[in-house]
Design a protein that fits this description.
Belongs to the relA/spoT family. In eubacteria ppGpp (guanosine 3'-diphosphate 5'-diphosphate) is a mediator of the stringent response that coordinates a variety of cellular activities in response to changes in nutritional abundance. The chain is an alpha+beta fold. The chain has three domains: about 5-195, Hypothetical protein af1432, CATH 1.10.3210; about 200-340, Beta Polymerase, domain 2 (2-Layer Sandwich), CATH 3.30.460.10; about 390-490, Ubiquitin-like (UB roll) (Roll), CATH 3.10.20. The protein contains 19 helices and twelve strands. The protein has helices at about 1-20, 25-35, 50-60, 65-75, 80, 85-110, 115-130, 135-150, 155-175, 180-195, 195-210, 215-230, 245-255, 275-285, 330-335, 360-380, 410-415, 415-420, 465-490; strands at about 235-240, 265-270, 295, 310-315, 320-330, 345, 350-355, 390-395, 400-405, 425-430, 430-435, 445-450. The chain is globular, with a radius of gyration of 25 Å. The chain binds manganese (II) ion (MN). The site of manganese (II) ion has 4 residues, from loops.
C-alpha cells in the first residue's frame, strides 16, 4: 500500500511541476473515489485494480494534461467495472469530467469480432474524437498501460489487443500529430504482433547505435560550439533513436537494406525562433556537405498532421551520414504531443475547450454526422456500410472513406471526376507509388495531375474498387472511342 501512496504523490508532484496552480485536490478526490470503487478488484497480474487507472493518469500528467483529464483517467473504468454509476460520478465531479468518462465507457464496450469489430472500433474512435478529442487521449493512456501489462493475458487476447493498437490506435495517434504516443503504441504492440521481426529490428538497432553514442556526443559538442560562435541561442540538442516499428517499416520500404536507413539516430536541434532554424541549417551545410534530395522544409510545408521541422542529412564528421532535425520549442512540443500541446483552457468556465481550429477536426465533426446517418441507414437496410472500409486522408487532412484495397485512382475519382480523369500519378505518405497500389487505413494520399491528359487509362478498370471510378473510366473511354470514330469514321 505504501507504494500506491508514493505513486499518488508522484502524480500530484508531476502535475504541480507542470502547473503550480493545478487543481490537485480534485485529482486526490478522484483517486480516493476510484480506489474505493475498485476496492477488492484485481488486475490479471494480481495487482490491485487501481494501479491501472493510476498509471494511465500518470502518463497524462507527464504530458502536462489538465486536472480534469487526469481525474477522468482515474475514473475511466469505474462505471464499467463497479457498482458506481455515471450519475454518481456526475454528482461528485460535474458534467465535464463525467462526459469524458462516458465517452471512454462507450469506446470500451465492443461486442463485435473480427472485421466487424475492427470497423466498429474505428467508427467509434472517429465519433468519440469528433465529440471530444480528450477522450481519445485518455483511451491512449489506458491502452498504453494495458500494452505494458499484456504478458499477464492469454496469448490470443494479447495478440488481438496488440494488433488493434498497431492498426487502429497508432495511425490515429499519428493523425493527431502525437509522435510520442504513436511511437510507444507501435513499439509495445510490435513485439506481440511480429515477434521475430521485432527481435531482429531491436538487435539491429542496438548494434547500430551502441558504437555511435560517443560519436554523436562529439558531433553535439561541435555543433554547440559553432552555434554559440554564431550567436544562436539553443534550447537543447539531443539525439533520438528511431522507434522500432517505424524502423521496420522503413527497412521494408528500402528493399530490406538497413544501410539505406540513415535516421536510426537523428540529432535534434531545438531553438527559439523560426529564423534560427534556417540559420542553423545554413551553418550545418557550411560545416558538412548535405546529401542531395534529403533537405526537407516541413516548416514552410508542414506534414498533414501539423508536423514542422527542417530535416537535412549530411556527410558529417569522419564522413559518416547523419540526419539533423531542426525545430523551435513550440514545433517540438507539437511533434511530441500533437493537438494535446494546444489544449485551450477556459479560465472563466473552468472547462477545456476541444481544439476545433484544425481543419480536419472540423472535417471529423462533419463526418460524424455522416456516420450517424449511415448507421441509421444501416439499421433500415441491414447492410453493413462500414464493412471492409478504410479511412484515408488528403494532404489537407480531409477524410475520405473507401473500400478496402481501393487504389489512388479510386481516391482521385472520389475527390472529383476531373481529378480522376487527369490523374497521372500518386504519392502515398509522401512516396511516389504506382496507381494500382492498395491503400491502407490512415494513408495520406496526394494525386499528381497532368492537365494535358486526355482521360483515364482503360487499364485502370482492372484494379479500381469503387463503382464511381469504374463507371467514370468506362464513360470516358467510350466517349473517346466515339470521337475517334467520328474522326476516322470514313475508314470503317
Ligand atoms: Mn482501463
Amino acid at each position: 500500500m505504501t507504494s500506491l501512496k508514493q505513486d499518488v504523490e508522484k502524480l500530484i508532484q508531476t502535475m504541480l511541476d507542470h502547473n503550480p496552480k493545478a487543481d490537485v485536490d480534485l485529482v486526490r478526490l478522484a483517486y480516493e473515489f476510484a480506489e474505493h470503487a475498485h476496492e477488492g478488484q484485481k488486475r490479471m497480474s494480481g495487482e490491485p485494480y487501481i494501479v491501472h487507472p493510476l498509471a494511465a493518469a500518470q502518463f497524462l500528467a507527464d504530458m502536462g494534461a489538465h486536472a480534469h483529464i487526469v481525474a477522468a483517467a482515474l475514473l475511466h473504468d469505474v462505471p464499467e467495472d463497479t457498482g458506481v454509476t455515471l450519475k454518481d460520478i456526475e454528482k461528485e465531479f460535474g458534467k465535464d469530467i463525467t462526459s469524458m468518462v462516458r465517452g471512454i465507457t462507450k469506446l470500451g464496450t465492443l461486442k463485435y469480432r473480427g472485421v466487424e469489430r475492427y470497423i466498429e472500433n474505428l467508427r467509434k474512435m472517429f465519433v468519440a474524437m469528433a465529440q471530444d478529442v480528450r477522450v481519445i487521449l485518455i483511451k491512449f493512456a489506458d491502452r498504453l498501460h494495458n500494452l505494458q501489462t499484456l504478458d499477464s493475458l492469454p496469448p490470443k487476447k494479447r495478440y488481438r489487443i496488440a494488433l488493434e493498437s498497431l492498426e487502429i490506435f497508432a495511425p490515429i495517434a499519428n493523425r493527431l500529430g502525437m509522435g510520442e504516443i504513436k511511437g510507444l503504441l507501435e513499439d509495445y504492440s510490435f513485439k506481440y504482433v511480429y515477434p521475430k521481426e521485432y527481435e531482429w529490428v531491436k538487435h539491429t538497432r542496438d548494434q547500430k547505435t551502441q558504437v555511435r553514442e560517443e560519436y554523436f556526443n562529439q558531433v553535439i559538442k561541435k555543433v554547440q560550439y559553432e552555434l554559440k560562435k554564431a550567436g544562436i541561442e539553443v534550447e537543447n540538442i539531443h539525439w533520438r533513436k528511431k522507434n522500432l516499428y517505424s524502423m521496420y517499416e522503413k527497412i521494408q520500404r528500402n528493399e530490406n537494406d538497413i544501410n539505406r536507413v540513415y535516421d536510426i539516430i537523428a540529432l535534434r536541434i531545438v531553438v527559439h525562433h523560426i529564423a534560427d532554424c534556417y540559420a542553423v541549417l545554413g551553418i550545418l551545410h557550411k560545416l558538412w556537405k548535405p546529401l542531395k534530395g534529403r533537405i526537407k522544409d516541413y516548416i514552410a510545408q508542414p506534414k498533414p498532421n501539423g508536423y514542422q521541422s527542417l530535416h537535412t542529412t549530411v556527410f558529417c564528421m569522419d564522413g559518416e551520414i547523419v540526419e539533423f532535425q531542426i525545430r523551435t520549442v513550440e514545433m517540438h512540443e507539437t511533434a511530441e504531443y500533437g493537438i494535446a500541446a494546444h489544449w485551450n483552457y477556459d479560465e472563466k468556465t473552468s472547462t477545456i475547450l476541444p481544439v476545433k481550429e484544425l481543419a480536419w477536426v472540423k472535417e471529423l465533426a462533419k463526418m460524424q454526422k455522416d456516420i450517424m446517418k449511415r448507421v441509421q441507414d444501416l439499421e433500415l437496410l441491414k447492410v453493413d456500410f462500414f464493412k471492409n472500409r478504410i479511412f484515408v486522408f488528403t494532404p489537407k487532412g480531409d477524410v475520405i472513406d473507401l473500400p478496402e484495397d481501393a487504389s489512388p485512382v479510386d481516391f482521385a475519382y472520389c475527390i472529383h471526376t476531373d481529378i480522376g480523369n487527369m490523374c497521372s500519378g500518386a504519392k502515398v505518405n509522401e512516396r511516389i507509388v504506382s496507381l494500382d497500389t492498395p491503400l491502407k487505413n490512415g494513408d495520406v494520399v496526394e494525386i499528381l495531375i497532368d492537365k494535358n491528359r486526355k482521360g483515364p487509362s482503360p487499364d485502370w478498370i482492372s484494379f479500381v474498387k469503387t463503382n464511381q471510378a469504374r463507371s467514370r473510366i468506362k464513360q470516358n473511354t467510350k466517349q473517346r472511342l466515339l470521337s475517334l470514330n467520328k474522326l476516322f469514321g470514313s475508314f470503317t
